[in-house]
Each structure stands twice: as C-alpha cells, then as structure tokens.
Amino acid sequence: MASMRDIKRRKSSIQSTQQITKAMKLVSTVKLQKAKNRAEETNPYFNYMYQTVVSMLKRSGSIMHPYLKAGTSAKKAVVVITSNRGLAGGYNSNVVKQVLDSGLKKEDLKIYAVGSKGKEALERRGFEIAADYSEVIEAPGYEDASAICKKVLQAFQEEEIGEIYLAYTHFKNTVSHEPKLIRLLPVAINGQEAEEDSNILMNYEPNDEEALNMIIPKYITSLFYGALVEAVASENGARMQAMDSATSNAEEMISDLSLKYNRARQGSITQELTEIIAGASAIE
Amino acid sequence: MADNEKMFQVKIITPDRVFYTGEAEMIEFNTSSGQIGVYKKHIPLTTVLEPGAVIIHEAEGEKIAAVHAGFAEVLPEQVTLLAEIAEWAEEIDVARAEAARKRAEERLQAKTAEIDVARAEFALRKALTRIDVKDMK
Fold this sequence. Notes:
The complex is a heterodimer of chains A (284) and B (137). With 284 residues, chain A is of the alpha/beta class.
C-alpha cells in the first residue's frame, strides 16, 4: 500500500487540478451565455437570407449563373472552423474528422483554416493550407466573415477552385453540438423546400443576374458569419461540458484517495498501538 | 390616427440584431436604380440597396436611419430590408463620420498605387450617408 505521504501529495495535486477545471468551467459558462445570445440574434438575418435565396433560385431555374454550377477546376476549398485553444473535449477533432471522412480526395482540397487547432491537425496530415484566419475566431465580426468570403469567392471566380465547402460545429442547444460539412457553392437547394409558395412572381432590379451576383456573396458571407458565431458558442459549450466532467472525475478521485488515506492512517495507528503493547508486555 | 388599410409590415434586419420591426404607411430607401418609395400593395420586388437614408413613415411620424449595403425584399403586405449595417440617425457620431470622410477623400486624392480605390470610395459614400442622415434629423 502506498504510504500516507504519497497519497496526501497525490490528493493535493488532484485538488489543485480540480480548482483549475472548475474555474475554466465557470469561465466558459459565462462565455457560452454571451456567445449563445449572439448566435440567437444572428439567426433572423440568416433565416431570412436563406429564405430569400431559396425563393430566388426556385424562380430563376432557367438562369445560367456561374455561382449555380461547379467550376472547371477539380480543386475544392474547405473552410474549417475550429478553435485556437484545446481542452474542449472532442470539439476540434470532431470537425477535423468531418473533413477526413468526407470522401473528398486529399490532393484536391485547399483548406481555409479558422482556428489554429484544426489547421495544425490538417497540416500534420498533409493537407494544403491556403490561408489561415485563426485570430478571427477570438471575436468574430461580420467584417471578418466578409473578408474570408471575398477571398474564397475570388479564388472561385479565378477558377482556382471549383467548389466551396464549410466545416463547422452547429450549435443546437447548450448540450448538443453537431459537427457539419456543407457545400456552399455551387448553391444547392433542397427539392422539398423549393415547392412552397411559388405563386408569387418576384421582380428583380436591376435584373435577375445582377441581383444574384450581389445576393449570393452576401448569402455566403452570412453563412460564414453564422457558422463563426455558432462555432464560438459550440466551443464554449463543449469546453463547459468537458470541464464539468473533469471536475466531477477529480471529485471522485479525491474521495477515493481520502478513503485510502484514512485507511492508511488507521493502519499506522493500529500498528503503533500493537508495537507499544508488545513492547510493554515484553518489559513485564 | 392613420388608416389601418394603408399600413404594412416593415422589418429591417442586420447580422447583429433585428434592427426594426413595425408598421408603416410608406418607406423610402435608396436602391441601385435610384431612390424609391414603397406603399402597401407594391408588386413583389427584390432590389439591391445602396448606401443611403431609409425613411419609415409611421402613423405617429417619421423615423430616419442610415443603411449601407444589403438588399430589400418588397411584398404586397411586407417590406424586409436585409442590411449589413444599419443605424438610427440618433446613433451616428458626426465627428467620426467627418473624420472618415476626410480620410477617404485624402486617400482618393493621393491615388497611390497601393490604395484600393473601390474601398475608399465605398468608405466615402458611407461617411457621406451618415452625415446626410444626421442633417435630415
């Protein structure tokens, strides 16, 4: 059995780890609240944008627009949104897994990384990193999303890439976050949703094509922005859960060690007593 | 009290918040093909917004805001403006807008190779819009 001193040392080390995980949990709880509110405020804009684009596209089936068909290049851009910091459970590796399991060929992919964890993981596996926007994830703003969007769309227009994907973590609610990989360009709309309310005849000014030209980049920017905001919320949610279970694991270990410590202490007292009694009876 | 028959829903949504929702009799805004005013029962229209003032004529009076870039969806019963940036006239900091205007003008005048002319022009238009909107108030 380990000595009393060893057990005590181990217990106090776990105790200080527990204090850290507890503090981290509190911090991410507060951050989660903030990020969650932001994600909720962004939602109406994004939903409206989506509806508008859906209704535009279903009415403009005949338009041939560069944004609606795949480019000639075999290269595909993937915007990967992860975090800059670890200790968030499977948060980062789940997003990376989405990219690895996507069935897309490694040689064809160009990674636009947001968040250094994802960038490092993919770099290690030999993916090509086209750009790194890791500082953005600290405080994502609409301008950041629009800068990334501009860069990616430019590459699309110059035919460096033929398709654009986005890998991020969708924030469902505080306890459930879902890693996702979606295709942004060419724009794909679900057949089902395209069925509704197609009886209104929409007019476009200046004309269909220019309106599309202008609205699709905005649509993609809003997707990026929404994804960034949701990713921040998910990151904090994931960290909160990870730190919560770390804290309770530490709790368990501490109570286990306390038991062992008390047993060892009792053992040593009993031993001492037996020695004293044995010593006394030897004298008699 | 305005006639209820004439009122329609107006929504202005930005990425950060729902900027405005309410009922209005008429709304004026600036599009890429010029300034337009929309009453109820307008034909369905989607149009691109240009930086400019948005004037919402409510039953009790007017509300003025500055809107930069975005698009508008006009339906017979509802008008929705999706704007990247929107601010009420009260919220505008004139000193900052003036400074931005000066900076943009200087940049356009200098015309060195490395400046992005389109960006400077956009900044100038944003600053001018802000100043205009403030003056309207």
